[in-house]
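Collaborator request log, item 7. Partner lab (contact: R.S.) asked for a structural prediction of Inositol monophosphatase to inform their binding assays.
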Amino acid sequence: MQEVWKDIDAHAKRWIRDAGEHLMASMKKALIIETKSNAADLVTNMDREIEQFLIGKIKETFPNH
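Returned to partner:
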């Protein structure tokens, strides 16, 4: 079981680094800000991109999750 957690940890760290690199590369792109449930609940296009990136990686690596 310990090996499973080490594997998850290694993947998560790599994905976080990749997401950070994507964010840094996107700093010059226009930031689109929208509201979700109310005016104080904001989300950006980058939030959504990174969320989809991470969901994709989880589904690809752990399809039964």
